[in-house]
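Q: Here's a chain of 334 amino acids. Please give me its 3D structure as tokens.
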Amino acid sequence: MIDEESIEIAFSSYKPSAPPEDASPTKVSETFESISGWLRRKPIHGLKKWEWRYFTLAESKLKYYLTERDITPSGVFNFNQLTGTIATIKTKGFVIDFHSCQHRFFYKAQNEEDKRNWLTALHINMMNAQNTDKIMNAVSMKENFWKYERVSDYWFQTNANTGDLIFFQAKAVGAKIQRNIGRSSFDHIAMVLCYSSGKIGVFEVTSANGVALVDWDDFHSLNWIDYYTKIVYRRLEVERSEFLLNDLQKFVNSTSGKSFGFSAKKIITRVNKKAGQEQDFFCSELVASAYKAIGLLPADFKTTGVFPMHFEKDDGLPLRNATLGPLLQIDFDL
């Protein structure tokens, strides 16, 4: 029988390189409640080469990134939502298994000391998780559950703020084609608007209704959430001054009811118009124009060249005095 360690030898002569030259050394807190540093991970699918990734562990969440500068992690394991076990393997390695998940997650540290530190920190964070008295499998049963950190719908509704973003991945075949063309995980994007009553509004443009503000409650009552494979939330980190909110209100008032418009001519010509004076919009253009209206994008920025992928990337837009937080998947089973 060939184990996971042997696979690397049996199918590849690849010799793993060291972490990037500018890699930070492993840092661990005195209590082992947090640790960060570079680990090698074995890709889940296929016989791909082991790869270096930057990992952080704190507050019972293990995250990994392509680089130390990334805001959005490439994967997240939230031990508050998972039941897992750890086992050591030879040559500086260890494996994490999760209840009801068919995959095993293999890692290697840079040396034995790092391995001991990671194992100690992992055990402490797992013990500190909120679910130690019961088996959690609602998340681990789902395909590629680690790709996004997951939050409940309640968490979303109590934490969302005006200007935040919502990404949609529809189930329809046409939506998948659209995502492939747009090089994004999502085919639709909208902006959060919070009512004074505390309710959540979704400001968007669709081919059916044009520019409109709909209640988040409608996604439940009308079963709209069933049309999507994923709905992902991203927080806008910005000072929400009275001036900013007033400018946003003016933009919403001036654009509501305008039609949906998407054409090759619009994309190619990329005419710069004052925010709110456009005749029609497509989804990401509307959100970009709103950001432009409140000063988060330059006045000469051409919004017709913006697609969901630009909001999805950490460095996709030249935001001014604002940043976007990590992508969080809204899990309606939590």
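Q: Can you summarize the key feature?
A: The first helix runs from residue 4 to 11.
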